[in-house]
Amino acid sequence: MRRERNEKLAAAIAETGWSQPKVAAALVRVAAEVGADELLGTSRSHIAMWIAGTEPSGRAPLILSETLSRRLQRPITPAEIGLTPPKSGAAMASEWHVDTVSALVDLGRSNVDLERRRVLAGTAYSVTGLALPGQTWWDEAPERARSRPASTTRRIGTAEINALKEMTEFFSKRDQRQGGVDGRTALYQYIYDDVATYVGGVFASDETRCRLFAAAAELVYVAGWMSFDASHHEAARRYFTLAVKLAAEAEDAPLAGHVLRAMAHQATDLGHPKEAVDIAAASVEHKRYTLATPRERALLGVVRARSLATAGRRQEARTALLRAEDDLAAAKPGDDEPARVWFFSEASLAHETARTLWALGDLQGAQDEFWRSVHTRKTDAFGRTHVVTLGYLGAAQASQGNVEAACGTWAQALDAMNGVHSGRAREAVINMRRVLSPYRNRGISAAAEIDERAKAVLRRVA
């Protein structure tokens, strides 16, 4: 019987702009990541046969769809490219169903090994990786952790929990001051060498295990946030996913919500509003919101507001903003708050509110809120965020025709860049030059001066 050409697959590959050998090479990389060793020999001839109508076997349909999804930056199912997904027994395990300790070791090894870290840094952000598991997965997470046999003989107690908390505080505060580019390698090494040993250790009680897993989740989350700030987006997404898994196994719902909020933030920034809205909604579901402190509720809520605004859901976004403001107003000195929300204050709320108003088209409101953020922030502890906010404030001023004011604001941002190594701060500087490009030849001395200074900063922080 003559096979029919798979036009859907051919069209998807054509959309990528890749040749058949390049598709095969990309598929092999994905196969290596997920341990599908049977596909490591995939070549151009395999791709050609699949386009000609041969049905790939085993996990190939799922891995091929994941490969194309990463390239095209949108979810693609096997059915959409004319392939039949494997039966459940042969399906490619999603990250949510890979053992947490194994995932921690594998991701740590990838980031400690220089060559594998370079590959991971260049791996495209996986939109399909944003799909969250169903409720059964969440319900069963604690029992999975309790029933997992120890992988080391290390006895874990308060000393190890405190060590994780100290490291989390150090790297979190360093990131806020200087950005996520520098210092990540040391954190990756610590996660690989020590955190994996702790998580796989022997616990005196389930309560001790939960406390350790929660502490590990917060540190892994910081690794994800630093990767995000360094613009290593796929590495960040994987660390965030792993942090959510650890939080779920620790039975810490607010912590899981905190990390999901970061995933929604990243998805919004990278232009995936639908996925961002879904993840942000999950971050405030049930106990993730009800058990959170008022300050953390405000953080979850304002990120959800921006995701809704970016998705065009205007009224819902405004409602979420008001609720976030009320939640932060309810936070009082002396509240028993988790250490992870130490950074979230009026300045932080103003920054995220401004970005939400910008997405809603309210440029004056955004400018006012960016100004409030700048003038209520303690800049010595938040150098990186200060640069980013000043960058946005200048862009808001320029968008309303006030180029001189924008240049003054950007001069402050460039002054504050000393010692900051951040992908997001660097993007703010790139945006200065982008916005100023129409004014370079109009004889505006301030614009020319800022452009030259921005070029010098970019050479230094490249």
3D architecture notes:
- The chain has 462 residues and is mainly α.
- It folds into four domains: 7-93, no CATH class; 97-110 and 134-251; 253-361; 378-462.
- 68% of the residues lie in helices and 1% in strands.
- A two-stranded parallel sheet has the order 1-2.
- Helix 21 runs antiparallel to helix 22.
- The radius of gyration is 23 Å and the shape is globular.
- The protein starts with 6 loop residues before the first helix and ends with a helix.
Q: Describe the sheet with the most strands.
A: 2 strands, parallel
Order of helices and strands: HHHHHHHEHHEHHHHHHHHHHHHH
Helix tally equals 22
CA(first)-CA(last) distance: 58 Å
Provide the domain count. 4
Strand order of the largest sheet: 1-2
Question: What shape does the CA trace take?
Answer: globular
| Alpha carbon gyration radius | 23 Å
Please report which band the strand proportion falls in: under 5%, 5-15%, 15-25%, 25-35%, 35-45% or over 45%.
under 5%
Number of strands: 2
Low-confidence stretches: 88-92
Give the structural class: mainly alpha
InterPro entries: TPR-like_helical_dom_sf
Organism: Streptomyces dysideae
Protein name: Tat pathway signal protein
